[in-house]
Amino acid sequence: MIIPRLFLFISFFSLVLCNEKFNSHVLPRPLILETTQLRELDNEVQLQCTSWRFGVEANNLNPWKTIPLECADYVKDYMLGRAYRLDLERVSNEAGIYAKSLELSGDGKDIWVFDVDDTLLSHLPYYADHGYGLEIFDPAEFNRWVDKALAPAIEPSLKLYKEVMGLGFKVFLLTGRSESQRSMTEENLINAGFQNWEKLILRGSEDHAKLATVFKSDKRSEMVKEGYRILGNSGDQWSDLLGSFMSNRSFKLPNPMYFIV
Ligand SMILES: *[C@@H]1O[C@H](CO)[C@@H](O)[C@H](O)[C@H]1NC(C)=O
User: Fold this and answer.
1) Strand order, beta sheet including 110-114
2) Which fold has domain 53-252?
3) Global pTM?
4) For this UniProt entry, which residues form the secretion signal (predicted)?
């Protein structure tokens, strides 16, 4: 956004300068007005879309299907610019501070749960080809991308992953991906730098009809019944974090591109 703004700013002043140098009747005033109006509209879109994104991240907009058309450039700028990275780093850092503050029991039952898609592995390369959430989600097309096992790591999550492991947490990966995608999921995770998880839990045949919140709650309930203590949970969707048998602390990663019920 900085470059187009700067450009508008410069063109605004060059118009003013032209106006002063030459006959002020040659360049009609409305030209200048148009430029300022453009800048205001730009600001208004920025404001509206920031407000929309706040609603998304706070789970006030629930459910939503695609990003608003007028926010297409805004979401793209957010995802590709520094803001998304900064937000990811903040979540990872805060989670790390919390993890370090805990005294683990040492019995191997203290666990941290991570979601996989857009929590550990980034689907930004896929969404870059699909309007950053502007297109209605196409599961078949998305699965073809998943099967390639090429998703890069979300670096701040990899940092947290290594940190909690170093502290002695057992790591559980809980994903809405299907059991049939287990081998490519493992391959992708390992290639992206994730190793030594305790369990990778995918959707079995009995889980396919379940909403993500229900599936994940059911799986967390099994963990608790097995005596595990879920002390931390990281996910980019509220459905990773809410429901029953919630973690002592949940960490919501930013994701303005899509919403999973
Ligand atoms: C986690 O939450 C449970 C249930 O509320 C509580 O008993 C336990 O003390 C909490 N553990 C930590 C480490 O905060």
Assistant:
1) 199-203, 170-178, 110-114, 229-235, 249-252
2) Rossmann fold (3.40.50)
3) 0.85
4) 1-18
